[in-house]
Amino acid sequence: MTTFYQKIRHAKKILVLDLGFLGDTVTLLPALSVIRKACPRADFSVMVESKVVSLLQLTPWIDHVFGYPRFPKGPKWYQDFGRVLNLRREHYDVIINLNGSDRSSLLTLFSGATHRLGRVPYRKKSRFWRYCFTDTVEVPYHTQHLSHQRLDCLHLSGFPKEISPDFDVVMPENAFEKIRPSVGTTPFIHVSPFTTMDKKELPAEQLVELLGCLDFPFVLSCAPNEREQTKLKALLSSLKKQPLAVFAGSLNIVELTALISLSQAHLCGDSGSLHLAVMLKKPTFAWFRETSGVVEWAPTGDTHVNVFGDDGDPFLKIPQKKLEDTFRAFLMSIQ
């Protein structure tokens, strides 16, 4: 039986279509590197959510990057007519879509590409889904990290397993211009204390105690929104030790990546910055809600330590002793 890869290995134009946010895009990079290496002569494009297009400035081996607006709200279905026309004008031979959402599946169908690979969605809600693809692949959800799931999709589709997946990011020197004056050459731990919602965060008093365990310079950063900036201001007023530097929503994605790349380790909740740290091969200490899907996002490996807690009201509930003892063991491991 001819595999999908055998059909497309000499394709001239390939598009990987994934409309996920920062974490989704970072965890897609190893699969993208496999596709690039398996089809080295193809014109290789990727479509991601508009807010994270800048991240793929760090992957010069991708020829073209396109954005799709999903935040704070995606377009109406009829507003995609122009995008469909643009896709058709590109005359892609191949579209690979491991996302499975209704919108991305329809864009795949109407692209006009000859070969269209799709992953079977977690819940097969739409009757039309199967007709959007010429080839499909089924890999279980909620069983392993999302990056490994995507690699499994490629391997089951015939992509060579001997191709080594990697993030293959290249940091431009100008990404450090805003950071180096504040941190200099001092070794530090980067702390990203907040996430997109309270239930994924530690209570402020617990975070203060945790940072009090640090006998090492640390740098704080947060997202450029009022919610996180307000929380960061309150946190700073309560800290027992002051940080080496603070970036209160002043960094874009590329600059945040540059900051993490200079750090010795990364401390955070379940957020996009965690995936950037994993991408950069930095040791991480992270706290998570215990859910059925957490295995898809929690990093694995000897250099990554995760602490799991229950839903609180409204914050994450993790016993303080458990949190601090695990954190101290992590600090010992990276010294």
Explained architecture:
- The protein has helices at 4-8, 22-38, 81-90, 102-110, 146-156, 180-183, 204-211, 226-238, 253-262, 272-279, 320-334; strands at 13-17, 43-49, 64-68, 94-97, 115-119, 135-137, 189-192, 218-222, 245-248, 265-268, 284-289, 304-309.
- The chain has 335 residues and is of the alpha/beta class.
- It folds into two domains: 4-156, Glycogen Phosphorylase B (Rossmann fold); 175-334, Glycogen Phosphorylase B (Rossmann fold, 3-Layer(aba) Sandwich), CATH 3.40.50.
- A six-stranded parallel β-sheet has the order 3-2-1-4-5-6, sandwiched between helices.
What's the alpha carbon Rg, rounded to whole Å? 21 Å
**Strand line-up of the largest beta sheet:** 3-2-1-4-5-6
Mean pLDDT: 95
Number of domains: 2
If helices are DSSP runs of H or I spanning 4 or more residues, what is the number of helices? 11
Low-pLDDT runs: none
CATH first level of the largest domain: Alpha Beta
**Share of helix among residues?**
25-40%
Based on Cα principal axes, name the global outline: elongated
CATH topology of the largest domain: Rossmann fold
Beta-sheet strand percentage?
15-25%
CATH H-level name of the largest domain... which superfamily? Glycogen Phosphorylase B
Order of helices and strands: HEHEEHEHEEHHEHEHEHEHEEH
The count of DSSP E runs of length 2 or more, i.e. the number of strands, is 12
Give me the secondary-structure topology.
Blueprint: H1 4-8, E1 13-17, H2 22-38, E2 43-49, E3 64-68, H3 81-90, E4 94-97, H4 102-110, E5 115-119, E6 135-137, H5 146-156, H6 180-183, E7 189-192, H7 204-211, E8 218-222, H8 226-238, E9 245-248, H9 253-262, E10 265-268, H10 272-279, E11 284-289, E12 304-309, H11 320-334
Parallel strand pairs: 1-2, 1-4, 2-3, 4-5, 5-6, 7-8, 7-10, 8-9, 10-11, 11-12
Helix pairs in contact: 2-5, 2-10
